[in-house]
Amino acid sequence: MPMKSVLLLLVICLLGGRVAQAQQVLLKGRVLDEKNQPIPYAGVGVVGAEVGTATNEAGEFLLRVPRLPQQLRVGSLGFEPATLTVTTAVEPLVIRLKTSLVALPEVRVRNPGQLAIELVQRASAKLARHQRESMYGQAFYRQKQRHNGRYTEFMDAFYDVRFTVEGVSGWLLTQARYGQVAEETGVDMMNFSAAMRLIPVFDPKPSPRKVAVPLGPRATEQFTFQLREVLRGEAGEVAVIDFRPRPDLGQSALSGTLYLDLRSAALRRVESQVPIADLMSLQFGEGTSLDSQDMRLTADFVPYQDTLSQLRAVRAEQRIVLQYQGRPDTTTVSGNLFFYSYAKGANTKGYKSTGVNYNDLRQARKGPYEPEFWRSREVLRASPAEERVIRDMEQQQAFGAF
After folding, report:
1. 72 CB-contact burial (10 Å; exposed 0-12 / middle 13-18 / buried 19+)
2. Which of 316, 369, 301 is nearest to 43 (CA)?
3. What is the pLDDT of residue 98?
4. What are phi and psi of 338, to 5 degrees?
């Protein structure tokens, strides 16, 4: 009989809801670029208020506001932000963002290589000054798993979160639902969200036993940095800096792209290729072998005090291709964690450690499924495809305690 393989997160660098009350008017819409392509994970908020959300993978959003008219602010890195006045909710909104102007580094600056190093050093020093400061908020997490193109696992969760400039340091699961369709082959990802919580972009105490990350006191010793371009928009200029581990580094390391404010060196985004083979142990089922696996991680940040920035969202996707009895067997796992509210202080005294052994799936399986809770939470922003998955899983009674 075929057996499923299990992926367990073994070693990773050390790090690293309460739902808002229902409002009166529900706004629906899509955010597109100039070529009518969807812009995923764009921020959509009310001007002058904390009310806000983000678009899903299809560029869609749902947002409740107290009344109309309202001014909305829409933005995404690489695009010029847009402000519009909404007076009616009868028809879905279609919002188009213009691409930011791009200046090549040799045109914008005299020494792009030196500028990239200086920005990384300034960003690292800025983060080091604030490394002990805790921040708080409420976040929503969605995890999806597809096996050979078909959804087989689905989890939604609300958290109270404590975090620092390094990343998430503690959280409390406040509500979750978990659905699974039985499969005999494929992969069980026991704690995929650990990567979302535990892989930082800033490490104040780098060590050869940990994954090297692009910001920290030894960043320029461990990585090479190259200024690729400068994004120019209404919100200012952002330097796009590619980073790669040095050939003689001798340890696992991220590679990817940093987005740093050209004036303040504040962090705006990190796109990383994760050396997942060094961090995961794959236990094969009978007749199964590994073909390939890769993982990408993106963390977005928003402006905060002292020209700093705070975590806004983390997205990750891992693709594992196995060979089972001579045939490819593909599992894709994706996770999206985003903050829909920030708080000035702790929301609870019960934040759990976000160590590698914290298993979200096990926690989600413990509680009963409460359909009404989930139907009244617009923050979920499910795309039409996901809504069908949720409906099918409800019909199969796949959600609930296990």
Report:
1. buried
2. 301
3. 92
4. -140, 150
Number of domains in the chain: 2
Q: What is the DSSP string of 246-257?
A: -TT--S-B-EEE
How far is Cα 24 from Cα 375, in angstroms, rounded to an integer? 16
199: in domain: yes
Decide if 402 is inside a domain: no
CB atoms inside a 10 Å sphere around CB 93: 18
The verdict on 158 and 300 lying in the same domain is yes
- Boundaries of domain holding 255: 5-16+101-395
* One domain, residues 92 and 105: no
The pTM (predicted TM-score) of the whole model is 0.84
Which of 96, 115, 140 corresponds to the end of one domain? 96
Q: Beta strand 352-353 with 168-180: parallel, antiparallel or unpaired?
A: antiparallel
**CA angle at residue 369 from 365 to 375, to 5 degrees?**
135
Any idea what DSSP says for residue 349?
S
- Whole-angstrom distance, CA of residue 144 vs CA of residue 54: 18
For tokens 């997160």, name the residue.
9
Q: Strand 255-261 relative to strand 267-274: parallel, antiparallel, unpaired? A: antiparallel
| Predicted local confidence at residue 200, as pLDDT | 85
Planar angle of CA 363, 176, 400, nearest 5 degrees? 80
Q: Are residues 107 and 89 in the same domain?
A: no
pLDDT tens column, 260-316: 999 999 999 999 999 988 877 777 777 788 899 999 999 998 888 767 888 888 999
70 and 192 assigned to the same domain = no
Contact between 174 and 212 under an 8 Å Cβ cutoff? The reply is no
* C-alpha–C-alpha distance, residues 167 and 197, integer Å: 7
Residue 305, in any domain of the structure: yes
The token pair that represents 37 in the structure block: 């392509």
Boundary-marking domain end, from 64, 96, 128: 96
Give a yes or no: residue 401 inside a domain.
no
Residue 371 contacts by C-beta under 8 Å, 6 or more apart in sequence?
394
